[in-house]
Specification:
This protein is 46% helix and 20% strand. By secondary structure, the chain is α+β, with helices and mostly antiparallel strands. It comes from Desulfoluna butyratoxydans.
Length: 315
């Protein structure tokens, strides 16, 4: 299962989440030319923390630095892309709920806890552990409790046929967690730090439960940047209107986009099937107004097609 995006739109700009993605990308580009021992210095090597000689060699500063730096290193483009895609999908809404500063501390703390989880169960390992997977798992664990009823647009490749499904977040993330657990307890050797993923996920859940973050704030936290644009790509669930050939749905835009107009790509979802189209929202549109897109409805027996009506809603 490959997640593509969720159906929730955050009220505020994901400043920290976007910055984290950019930093991970820049760090990865910088490490492409680094020698192999670079990862033994800035990666998380459990044996370094259980060997007195290693503490003398690296010093307290070096040991503490590696507990954070390892989560910004990646072993390849696929490793980086997978982590950043999950962070992009789930991180913006968690940041929206926690606020910028608290989200940053939560992300870093989740990464450290994930690293400690790996060290606890692999104390003698001399293999460097790298990657943002543990920190991202903490974000996913928080999302699991904060937005269980959100839906995740998921690509399921069946041989050479791409199938798209909208899966409730609690099912998608629950399956993901079970896969990590079964891989961790399967007994087979692996270069993947499964226990780091598990520790990060549980840390994210614990943080939400302890801090009471499930209670949604009535307005954005202080100093949060309010979003001026809705996502360019939106998933819209449509239903059949009266008459049986027209389709109706809801398009969410911001007040600024309503004043100035906007161009969106929307994925029309009906009966588990998606259809991607491009639409233009004219300037000066008002909430409740219905945009009519001719010929995008269901086929009529006489050869014509019904229309698609999108009701404008303000986010």
């Amino acid at each position: 299962m490959i997640p593509l995006r969720d159906t929730l739109t955050s009220r505020t700009l994901p400043v920290v989440n976007t910055t984290l993605i950019v930093i991970n990308l820049l760090v990865f580009l910088q490490t492409l030319s680094q020698p192999a021992h670079f990862y033994h210095i800035y990666g998380l090597v459990p044996a370094r923390y259980t060997t007195p000689a290693a503490w003398e060699y690296f010093g307290v500063t070096g040991q503490m630095t590696a507990l954070v730096s390892f989560m910004f290193l990646h072993g390849g483009w696929l490793h980086l892309f997978g982590n950043m895609l999950s962070l992009y999908i789930f991180g913006d809404n968690v940041e929206d709920r926690l606020g910028h500063v608290r989200y940053l501390l939560f992300y870093l703390g989740g990464g450290v806890v994930s690293g400690l989880s790996h060290m606890l169960l692999n104390p003698g390992s001399t293999v460097p552990t790298i990657g943002a997977s543990g920190a991202v798992a903490a974000v996913m664990g928080a999302y699991f409790l904060l937005y269980p009823r959100a839906k995740v647009l998921t690509l399921v490749p069946l041989f050479f046929i791409p199938l798209f499904f909208e899966i409730p977040a609690f099912i998608f993330l629950g399956i993901w967690f079970l896969m990590q657990f079964f891989n961790a307890t399967g007994g087979s050797a692996s270069a993947i730090a499964w226990w780091a993923h598990i520790g990060g996920f549980l840390c994210g859940m614990a943080f939400v439960l302890v801090t009471g973050a499930r209670k949604a704030p009535t307005k954005p936290h202080r100093f949060q940047a309010v979003r001026s644009r809705s996502p360019r790509l939106q998933i819209i669930h449509v239903r059949v209107d009266q008459g049986g050939f027209n389709l109706t749905g809801r398009l969410a835009i911001t007040p600024k986009e309503a004043r100035k107009g906007a161009v969106k790509r929307i994925n029309l979802f009906r009966f588990g099937k998606g259809r991607l189209i491009k639409i233009t929202v004219p300037p000066g549109v008002e909430p409740g107004k219905r945009l009519r897109l001719k010929g995008l409805g269901l086929p009529h027996p006489n050869g014509s097609r019904g229309d698609l009506f999108l009701t404008i809603a303000m986010d």
